[in-house]
Amino acid sequence: MARIYISLGSNIEREQHIRAGLDALHRLYGSLQVSRVFESEAVGFAGSPFYNLVVGADTDHSLSSVTRELRELEFAHGRPADAKKFAPRTLDLDLLLYDDLICDQPVSLPRAEIVTNAFVLWPLAELAPERRHPLTQARYGDLWAAYDKQSQRLQPVDFDWNPPSPKVRKESLTY
């Protein structure tokens, strides 16, 4: 079982797409550890504010499978195949960590945005304050404590999400 952390973001119909993303991740990976939701300014382009959060999950899916699944979820929720890196998003799903794996393919891990963007680091530090960054070995809680909090505007927002209840399967019993 691998422990994965995924960053979710949306600045188009934010609540709807964040909820849909959480529901989809729950269907794929089961129980999720979910940070608070934060509102942040768009980074890298002029655009509407984003909702961002981080989820943790355990999976037996391979790294390439997880990468493919996240991409397919983005497409299923309206992301164009030719979307620019710095552009509005219905749903943006970025794999931050896959255990302590360090790699460049099929995705760069650990994701560089962990230490550069408050909207990734703060929620990750909430979920895994004692976990260590695979490259620097610094704890995420310590990285957040040292982060220049004036560099990016970020604030928690009220947001409730309840995982979809499992479907109850009724079977006829025969004696």
TrEMBL record:
<dbReference type="Pfam" id="PF01288">
    <property type="entry name" value="HPPK"/>
</dbReference>
<dbReference type="InterPro" id="IPR035907">
    <property type="entry name" value="Hppk_sf"/>
</dbReference>
<protein>
    <recommendedName>
        <fullName>2-amino-4-hydroxy-6-hydroxymethyldihydropteridine diphosphokinase</fullName>
        <ecNumber>2.7.6.3</ecNumber>
    </recommendedName>
</protein>
<dbReference type="GO" id="GO:0003848">
    <property type="term" value="F:2-amino-4-hydroxy-6-hydroxymethyldihydropteridine diphosphokinase activity"/>
</dbReference>
<feature type="domain" description="7,8-dihydro-6-hydroxymethylpterin-pyrophosphokinase">
    <location>
        <begin position="85"/>
        <end position="96"/>
    </location>
</feature>
<keyword id="KW-0547">Nucleotide-binding</keyword>
<keyword id="KW-0289">Folate biosynthesis</keyword>
<keyword id="KW-0418">Kinase</keyword>
<keyword id="KW-0067">ATP-binding</keyword>
<comment type="pathway">
    <text>Cofactor biosynthesis; tetrahydrofolate biosynthesis; 2-amino-4-hydroxy-6-hydroxymethyl-7,8-dihydropteridine diphosphate from 7,8-dihydroneopterin triphosphate: step 4/4.</text>
</comment>
<feature type="region of interest" description="Disordered">
    <location>
        <begin position="156"/>
        <end position="175"/>
    </location>
</feature>
<dbReference type="InterPro" id="IPR000550">
    <property type="entry name" value="Hppk"/>
</dbReference>
<keyword id="KW-0808">Transferase</keyword>
